[in-house]
Amino acid sequence: MTLTHLLVGFATVVLTGVTAAPRPVPAGWTRHHRADPDVFIPLKFTLAQSNVDRLESLLLDVSDPQSPNYGKHWTHVQVKEAFRPSSETVDTVRGWLLHDAGIPVDQIKLNVNGDMMQVNVTIAEAEALLKAEYYVYGDDDGAARVGCHEGYTLPDHVAKHVDLVWPTTHFGRAGQFARRSGTSSAYFGHEAGAPKIPIKNLASFAESGCDTAVTLDCLRALYNFDFTPVSGSKNTVGVVEFEGNVYMPSDLDLFFETYRPDQVGHTPTLISIEGGNPFAAGNLGEPSLDIELMMGLLGSGQNLSLYQVGETSEAQEPADELLAALDGAYCSDPVVGSEGITDCGDKPRTNVISISYHLSPDLNDPTISPELQRMCTEIGKLSLTGITFVASSGDGGVAYSQAAECLLPDGTLEAGNPAGSFVGQFPASCPFITAVGATSVAPGASVNISTSTGLFFILIIAKCRQVKLKNPPLFSLPEGGFSNNFARPDWQQGAVQNYLDNFAPKYASSIFNRSGRAYPDVAANGWPLVIAQGGEFTLSGGTSASAPIFASVVAAINDARIAAGKSPVGFINPALYSPALLGTFNDVTVGSNPGCQTQGFPAAPGWDPVSGLGTPNFEEMKAAFLEFQ
Ligand SMILES: *[C@@H]1O[C@H](CO)[C@@H](O)[C@H](O)[C@H]1NC(C)=O
Ligand SMILES: *[C@@H]1O[C@H](CO)[C@@H](O)[C@H](O)[C@H]1NC(C)=O
Ligand SMILES: *[C@@H]1O[C@H](CO)[C@@H](O)[C@H](O)[C@H]1NC(C)=O
Ligand SMILES: *[C@@H]1O[C@H](CO)[C@@H](O)[C@H](O)[C@H]1NC(C)=O
């Protein structure tokens, strides 16, 4: 007894010795008490995969327009085999659990994907195994979680074979952020209790210009995007909505009756993940916006798939469930005390997947970074099969999320726009995502619906962060900047260096990470979009709108390539930044994305961290992509 206590005590000292300072409990969570040592938990080891160091070059091989293998995407099975953890990895981790930790062989299980090992151990055994102290934590919504926020230690020979251990340090976002993080929803008033902007007289709005009400016609004119699908029976496109975000078919019809009659009566094709239900009670904002824009722009000749992601107690982040359903990563069997993640790589995969949610701040933090790295790797693996992931860059300017969180010198995030370092968001920060920023038509500027030449674009600069109901203009603060987790890929090096050399403000080096992956990559309109929601027309937007608009453009490019007997475009970032796409963007040069008590970054000619390369000119972009093999 005494000996055991001594050993545990010793382990704790060692751990404290390697950790510089006591780690704070993650924001939003409260530490309640030590976990009961006799309780069994499923402890999961996400195994390191093979060939991850080659992922980027393998992707470039099929995505660089100059490559002889452009468009020759891999099959799902090929990807699985190439990245499967090696037998050395599996044997090392299993051997450690078996021999060093004495866990019975029948309690050690490998998932069907071969990338997750699960054991059934008591809290006391987990603590000894990981040299960690387990506690029970809670958030304000009553969610409870076991974990060890101070960290854990693996033996050296095991550590290099393990990417993540669950449950340990990653807590997900507490409270409402845990599952519901639509980038624009809180900001533009869709969250419960927040105001929204009803349109009393739609007819008068129809008369007004694209600076005061953005309709599908405005988007078509702005992006030279008059599209009728010809490959609808072969092409696929999807949008992701997470638990608690739902839509009403009657809202779609209200919208389609006015703006897209051929879609009246149609709804997206449901791909339910872990029981996701788009008709449950929940927030209407994000799905109404995404689905109406995509179905409206694409028309009835192209079906839209809706990935509705449910919630299991098992997933640390809702993205785990999405990725599990698409490629089998993270999946695990249900066992006593855990529902498991059972939609395991068997869901249909669409050519384009649009995501208007932020899942995590892009923090370089040992409790967050490994998880972001792993999710980004899974996104890259899926891109290798020819999927284009499009995501909103966020609406917080250079701060994180609508709560305007900035990074303080002690490593914590603080809300409310404090002076601090800039914080981006994941998944936009992942280089395998095409991140989309938001623009608006300049007040007073007109858009000729029948022709799109000679337009003047502007980003509306936010003067304050309050949504003033009586006194629009409303605004979007496209999030953009430089990742703290992901290095800058070669394909954007030239465009980004040009910005850093010629236009970037001279902030102290601690304010943003000059060597990080820079984003957004592109932009599309983000305000003020007319949509139907909750039985009435409202104005909505943010980069939440920009992502589905750009995703629709990519889907339409795929439609043309498929008609020409070519592959879908897949991972498009290397092509977007390539000389072949020069001149296919409307360059946005006015505006900025303030935050963290700075003016943020100014837009500039060429790529900038506000509008990326610019907004798309569909016809020209399509022509360029049709040139590729
Ligand atoms: C869309 O989905 C419906 C229902 O599955 C199907 O009948 C229709 O053929 C699809 N449309 C296209 C263009 O593939
Ligand atoms: C874990 O092991 C204990 C003790 O052998 C057993 O009672 C329990 O059912 C096991 N749980 C699972 C999920 O296998
Ligand atoms: C819109 O463009 C068309 C074609 O260039 C032109 O004939 C028409 O006069 C323009 N309308 C307005 C309102 O500028
Ligand atoms: C900057 O990004 C790189 C990845 O390119 C990362 O290794 C480094 O730690 C980051 N620096 C900071 C201060 O976050």
Describe this structure as you would to a colleague.
The protein has 629 residues and is of the alpha/beta class. It folds into 2 domains: 3-49 and 84-166, no CATH class; 179-627, Peptidase S8/S53 domain (Rossmann fold, 3-Layer(aba) Sandwich). 27% of the residues lie in helices and 18% in strands. It contains 16 helices and 26 strands. Strands 9, 10, 11, 12, 14, 18, 19 and 22 form an 8-stranded mixed β-sheet that branches. A 4-stranded antiparallel β-sheet has the order 3-4-2-7. Strands 1-5-6 form a 3-stranded antiparallel β-sheet, with no helix packed on it. Helix 10 links the parallel strand 10 and strand 11. Helix 14 crosses helix 16. The radius of gyration is 24 Å and the shape is globular. It starts with a helix and ends with a helix. The relative contact order is 0.14. Residues 1-20, 175-195 and 450-476 have low confidence and may be disordered. Bound molecules: 2-acetamido-2-deoxy-beta-D-glucopyranose (4 copies). Residues 448, 450-451 line the site of one 2-acetamido-2-deoxy-beta-D-glucopyranose (NAG). It comes from Mycena sanguinolenta. Residues 1-20 form the signal peptide. It holds the Pfam family Pro-kuma_activ. Ca(2+) binds at residues 587-588, 606, 608. Keywords: Calcium, Hydrolase, Metal-binding, Protease, Serine protease, Signal, Zymogen.
